[in-house]
Design brief:
The protein is mostly helical. Helix content is 67%, strand content 1%. α10 packs parallel to α17.
Length: 453
């Protein structure tokens, strides 16, 4: 009896393995899901809004329902691996913001089915790379990861601004939209200032709630559609027939490489902050394999790629709650939510301006995280050169007024790089990291000159 009590204890929440009483585990599991809930669904709304032809609210609601289901399944695989796919670490998975810019461009240029085709191929590409990670992962050095994360934050600024103003609707920039976005953003800020402990992680949800209620009073929400899909429904498999375009596939595969760099950083940070040890090679390999193959499964359900969530890495670092069983209860709740269409319909009815108010701060935080990562790498001459030149070329060569500089290149190169700052930064930083000498410090050069004299 004592052994049983010892095995099932609340103190196990701070251990990777071990049972926790279900009644105690569920609140901690839900905490992880709530920290990423909005971020998991927002990318779909943004990408679907950019698609030509645009997706209907019913289609978006169906995709949001599917996304919750897929995120829950992917999280379970990370927690409890299938063969070598999964890390056996407390990693929460969700639809990634990393792909928003490139997939919005693909959706606008080729249509939403081309997004599905590109993600399907790209997921297999990353998953296979994950299984072979021991042969290549050292190429993505910390300064490369840090510079890429900074570029991701920058690339999302215009996405957040477009949503803040009302999206691609005719009333973009209207007083109503600006009021909705501002009230939502201010709510997020005030929550961040005054909330205590883990509740700070729910600032986005607080802003979303206040903004949504205000939008109802401003007649910006159609509540009649929330129950239109019934109360219970199975996720829809292959809601769109995949289409395959070479330019789209290459663009997305490059961003999958970028996402791999992020995942390595997220997983390493989680192991260091939550488990107080260095990450193992098989954990990186399993994590990347799950990212990739789960993304292909996500595409089969019509959704963008899924990957590890930085919000949850931060939550683990703060709370030290790393128990797999505990986080599994949250994943199960996510799967159940994916079986309830009203949840998806609710988020589909969310006005773009409210979404913009929530995500504007989130996107800025991503860029600041990248800058912090660069600082952690150190500002020696080599790191400064890699970060400065990569960002200068990436941002400068993809600006709307200057991206015609790519016009001399083949169409496929233009499709991949001309409007994709993250892809350019990733490629340039990788090349510089490989060719620059390890020792570029000015002080060292001066010492050698003195010796020569």
């Amino acid at each position: 009896m004592r052994g049983s009590t010892k095995e099932c204890s609340i103190s196990n929440i701070y251990k990777l393995d071990g049972r926790v009483p279900v009644s105690k585990a569920i609140p901690f599991g839900l905490q992880h899901i709530l920290a990423m809930f909005v971020s998991n669904l927002a990318p779909i709304t943004i990408i679907a809004g950019a698609a030509q032809p645009a997706l209907s609210q019913e289609q978006i609601a169906m995709l949001l329902q599917n996304a919750m289901f897929v995120a829950g399944i992917a999280t379970l695989i990370q927690l409890y691996p299938v063969w070598r796919i999964g890390s056996r670490l407390p990693i929460v998975m969700g639809v990634s913001f990393t792909f928003v810019t490139v997939l919005s461009t693909v959706a606008a240029g080729y249509g939403y089915p081309s997004v599905i085709g590109a993600v399907l191929i790209g997921g297999v590409f990353e998953g296979t790379l994950g299984l072979l990670a021991k042969y290549w992962r050292k190429i993505i050095s910390p300064i490369v990861s840090a510079t890429v994360v900074t570029a991701i934050g920058y690339s999302l600024f215009t996405v957040g601004t477009r949503s803040f103003g009302g999206g691609y609707a005719d009333d973009f920039g209207s007083i109503q939209n600006l009021i909705l976005g501002t009230v939502t953003l201010v709510t997020c800020l005030l929550w961040n200032i005054f909330a205590k402990g883990y509740l700070k992680q729910l600032s986005v949800l607080a802003g979303l709630t206040v903004g949504y209620i205000l939008a109802i009073f401003l007649h910006k929400v159609d509540l009649s559609l929330i129950m239109s899909g019934g109360f219970i429904s199975l996720p829809t498999l292959l809601p769109f027939k995949p289409e395959f375009h070479l330019g789209a596939i290459i663009s997305v595969c490059i961003i999958f490489l970028v996402s791999s760099a992020e995942t390595i950083g997220d997983t390493s940070a989680m192991v260091s902050g939550g488990l107080n040890r260095e990450i193992e090679g098989k954990e990186i390999s399993g994590s990347l394999a799950c990212d990739g193959y789960a993304s292909s499964v996500s595409a089969l359900f019509g959704c963008p790629p899924v990957t590890s969530f930085s919000q949850n890495v931060g939550l683990i670092a703060m709370t030290k709650v790393v128990n797999r069983f505990t986080i599994m209860t949250g994943a199960v709740c996510m799967i159940l939510a994916g079986l309830l269409p009203p949840v998806g319909n609710f988020f589909a009815s969310l006005p773009d301006a409210v979404l913009g108010g929530c995500t504007l701060m989130m996107f800025g935080t991503i860029m600041v995280s990248g800058v912090q990562m660069i600082a952690k790498c150190g500002f020696n001459q080599r790191n400064t050169t890699i970060a400065a030149l990569s960002l200068a070329i990436g941002i400068g060569f993809t600006s709307a007024s200057e991206n015609a500089i790519w016009s001399v290149f083949p169409k496929v190169v233009q499709t991949v790089f001309a409007e994709n700052v993250v892809a350019v930064v990733f490629v340039v930083s990788i090349i510089l990291s490989l060719i620059l000498p390890k020792d570029m410090d000015i002080k060292k050069v001066e010492e050698k000159n003195v010796d020569a004299e």
